[in-house]
Amino acid sequence: MAELDADDEYSSSGDPEEQAISPAVFNDTVATLAPADPVLLRETASVGEACQRMVQARQAAVLVVDAGGKLAGIFTERDLLTRVVGRGLDPKGTALSDVMTPNPEVLSLRDRVAYAVHCMSVAGYRTVPLVDAQHKPVGIVAQHKPVGIVTVSDVIRWLASLFPATVLNLPPGGDRLKRPGQVDSG
To answer: What is the pLDDT of residues 59-85, one digit of tens each?
Structure first.
């Protein structure tokens, strides 16, 4: 009887799409996710203003910056639910500085996607601010300014791009499929 190698159970099937996934997971950087431009607001902005801007930009968060444009925090839809609505606060009268997550974990465009996935899964983040190598945004000279955000949706789109034939050949899902442009809570 032939002896099985310990890796045989996890060996590649030979599928070209499957073979492309492994190197991409470990080599692709966050820049390949095409992160969105951030919505930036000052710490003094109201939660109501932040929510309006999030809806307009169709983003799950705003990045909060200080007077010098440095990243001071992040305010997400989760913060809205737990720190504002859950506490019965008035969104129009509550400053972002009172309910934001200060000094959030950040990623750079050079970080590997695998590291971004690790950070998001271990800490439970759905949105992570991006800063450039010098902590400055592209085109602006300052320190620790955000250049974008990475979301779970960005990672899912990237994963789907690694094996498009499989994703594109899924059977129709009827009304269960999300339609482009459809606004929902997820």
So the answer is: 888 888 888 777 888 999 999 999 999
Residue 98's pLDDT is 97
- What CATH number is attached to the domain comprising 90? 3.10.580.10
Query: Cβ of 40: how many Cβ atoms within 10 Å?
Result: 16
Domain of residue 144, residue span: 28-161
Number of domains in the chain: 1
* 83 CB-near residues (< 8 Å, 6+ apart): 89, 99
**CA 86, 87, 91, 95: dihedral to nearest 10 degrees?**
-120
In a domain? residue 98 = yes
* pTM for this predicted structure: 0.69
Residues 47, 97 contacting (CB under 8 angstroms):
no
Residues 159/165/170/172 CA torsion (nearest 10 deg): 110
Give domain status of residue 4, yes or no: no
CA distance 25 to 6: 22
Q: Encode 48-73: b = buried (16+ Cβ within 10 Å), e = exposed.
A: ebbbeebeeeebbbbbbbeeebebbb
